[in-house]
From TrEMBL:
GO terms for molecular function: ATP binding; protein serine/threonine kinase activity. Signal peptide: none annotated. It catalyses: L-threonyl-[protein] + ATP = O-phospho-L-threonyl-[protein] + ADP + H(+); L-seryl-[protein] + ATP = O-phospho-L-seryl-[protein] + ADP + H(+). SMART domains: S_TKc (SM00220). Keywords: ATP-binding, Nucleotide-binding. Residues 34-273 form the Protein kinase domain. InterPro entries: Kinase-like_dom_sf, Prot_kinase_dom, Ser/Thr_kinase_AS, WAK-like. The keyword Nucleotide-binding applies. One of its GO terms (biological process) is cell surface receptor signaling pathway. It comes from the Eukaryota. The keyword Nucleotide-binding applies. This is Protein kinase domain-containing protein. SUPFAM superfamilies: Protein kinase-like (PK-like) (SSF56112).
Length: 273
């Protein structure tokens, strides 16, 4: 099915990128047969490996842990979505391998981990200057706005700090389009199975199942709050009604008490400007 889509002339003509087809043998060799020592990321259903070709070119390979119709559909969807996008703040999909039960996806390799780790891991906490945080927020917003301005809107559906990668210069790269959807410009909502990430999900979407063109705004808003106060999207040690970062932050905003919760470096450097 994916081979047919990639060879379809209409998709090729409208694509922002062109697909390179890799063989399974090439990717096995590049990753030392998908050795555990090449693992650079893990998800519930996917593993990401670093690979090196002879040119030499370093890249990342996303491989499904599960072989079922749902995973095949998500990987195919991700390829179709990516080939509609060309933007400096969206990670580049270089190609794929169609010889495996679930296609293997090959991306540019981003060396500096993701925004979640820089904000919340002990080794990174408070290392990000205010101007850098502001630039990352602006770049991510620009990428999301670009996707929503296309003739077929691309709704990410899983905007979160872990899906914003950072390169060596801390340039933001939006990642992971497996659950994204293409929505025609004249269509304002889409009924779809909710794909929640705890703490980031738009509550209206969660309760109604109606995916709106701007459903991502809520999720991106949570990322902005993470950048401001350095807290995770969900904290179980808070009172139940404030465990969600959004429900914790909104009253503080309404009561003009942000100075009490801003991350120390943000408060200090923000005041100096």
């Amino acid at each position: 099915m994916l081979q047919q889509l990639l060879s379809n002339s209409k998709i090729e003509e409208n694509s922002a990128q062109k697909a390179q087809i890799y063989t399974e043998e090439e990717l096995n060799k590049a990753t030392n047969n998908f050795s555990e020592s090449n693992v650079v990321g893990q998800g519930g259903y996917r593993t990401v490996y670093i690979g090196t070709l002879a040119n030499p070119m370093v890249f990342a390979i996303k491989r499904s842990k599960v072989v079922d119709r749902g995973q095949i559909k998500q990987f195919i969807n991700e390829v179709i979505i990516f080939f509609q996008i060309k933007h400096p703040n969206v990670i580049k999909l270089l190609g794929c391998c169609l010889e495996t039960p679930v296609p293997l996806l090959v991306y540019e390799f981003i060396t500096n981990d993701n925004l979640f780790h820089h904000l919340h891991d002990e080794g990174f906490v408070s290392s990000m200057a205010w101007k850098m945080r502001l630039r990352i927020a602006t770049q991510t917003d620009t990428a999301l706005a670009h996707m929503h301005s296309a003739p077929m809107h691309i709704i990410h559906r899983d905007v979160k700090s872990a899906n914003i990668l950072l390169d060596d210069e801390y340039t933001a790269k939006v990642f992971d389009f497996g659950v994204s959807r293409l929505v025609p410009m004249d269509q304002t909502q889409l009924s779809t199975l909710v794909q929640p990430t705890l703490g980031y999900i738009d509550l209206e979407y969660f309760h109604s199942g109606l995916l709106m063109n701007k459903s991502y705004v809520y999720s991106f808003g949570v990322v902005l709050v993470e950048l401001l106060i350095g807290e995770k999207s969900v904290l179980m040690d808070r009172p139940e009604k404030h465990r969600s970062l959004a429900t914790y932050f909104i009253p503080l905003l309404e009561e003009v008490r942000l100075n009490k919760v801003l991350e120390n470096r943000v408060a200090k450097e923000g005041d100096s400007e």
